[in-house]
Write a structure and sequence with these properties.
Blueprint: E1 4-11, E2 20-27, E3 32-36, H1 43-50, E4 58-63, E5 66-67, H2 73-79, E6 80-83, H3 94-99, H4 107-116, H5 143-157, E7 161-165, H6 173-187, E8 191-195, H7 199-204, E9 207-212, E10 215-220, H8 222-228
Parallel strand pairs: 3-8, 3-9, 6-7, 7-8
Antiparallel strand pairs: 1-2, 1-4, 4-5, 9-10
Helix pairs in contact: 4-5, 5-6
Bound molecules: adenosine-5'-diphosphate (ADP) (2 copies).
Subcellular location: Cell membrane
Keywords: ATP-binding, Membrane, Nucleotide-binding, Transmembrane, Transmembrane helix
Domain ABC transporter: 4-229
Length: 229
């Protein structure tokens, strides 16, 4: 399961300004679709609509044929995992931060998830930059470390559908490679929608959707897009 479909989706945050102007695409079960396009094109809006942070103005979004408006928030949250651009961690060890949302997870499960996300070396430590002054506002980790904690959380949660909102900020190439391989292990076999900023995920995607000003302006595999341009 886990087929995601957007059918002629239109959306406005404010009545007079159209953000998505009739978007259709499908992410088949277990496949990866990458959404690319300039800043402001509407990429993050697509993930917010899938999560029902907002509802479509017209058209519909379905998961396995069921309109997301007919699904409870709880089952939607169970079905979809999100690796956000910026993860807020709480003031405790990486171990507890990974367990977030899966409090019943065994130590073995947590360690396996940490290992796949390549943070097994420091799950017992407090995040780098840990500072009691930071308190409830969150911990300071590098972007790459935080993203790997988010990946480990998602591996532990094991949702059928995954949204990866890739970091826009530049990561050093070593970190980028580590994150790329962690992302590949978490997305394997899952229906994955990538808000893409890295060439590597685009090349590997089953389909690339190019969005500009709320419209799909091109679509195809990486090879097909290259041939056309
Ligand atoms: P992208 O992810 O491609 O950069 P977004 O989906 O974040 O684009 O935003 C698309 C457009 O919607 C932008 O013009 C943005 O300013 C606008 N927008 C985003 N969030 C809101 C909001 N909460 N209220 C009003 N406009 C918004
Ligand atoms: P939980 O289901 O563990 O209680 P949350 O309610 O915080 O977690 O979030 C539910 C899902 O929504 C999680 O997969 C989380 O990663 C995702 N999520 C949280 N905040 C955002 C956001 N700002 N944008 C998109 N997805 C989010």
């Amino acid at each position: 399961g886990g087929v995601v479909r957007f059918e002629d989706v239109r959306f406005s945050y404010e009545p007079e300004r159209r953000i998505l102007k009739g978007i259709s695409f499908e992410v088949p079960a277990g496949k990866t679709v990458a959404i690319v396009g300039p800043s402001g094109a509407g990429k993050s809006t697509i993930s917010r609509l899938l999560f029902r942070f907002y509802d479509v103005s017209s058209g519909r979004i379905t998961i396995d044929g069921q309109d997301v408006r007919d699904v409870t928030q709880k089952s939607l949250r169970d079905a979809i995992g999100m690796v956000p651009q910026d993860t807020v961690l709480f003031n405790d060890t990486i171990f507890y931060n990974i367990r977030y949302g899966r409090w019943d997870a065994s130590q073995e499960e947590i360690e396996a998830a940490a290992s796949m996300a390549q943070i097994d070396g420091f799950i017992r430590s407090l995040p780098k930059g840990y500072d009691t002054e930071v308190g409830e506002r969150g911990l300071k980790l590098s972007g790459g470390e935080k993203q790997r904690v988010a990946i480990a959380r998602t591996i532990l949660k094991a949702p059928p559908i995954l949204i990866l909102d890739e970091a826009t900020s530049a990561l050093d190439s070593y970190t980028e490679q580590e994150i790329q391989s962690a992302l590949e292990s978490v997305s394997r076999g899952r229906t994955t929608l990538v808000i893409a900023h890295r060439l590597s995920t685009i090349i590997g995607a089953d389909e690339i959707i190019v969005l500009a000003a709320g419209e799909v302006v091109e679509r195809g595999t990486h090879g097909e897009l290259l041939d056309r341009n």
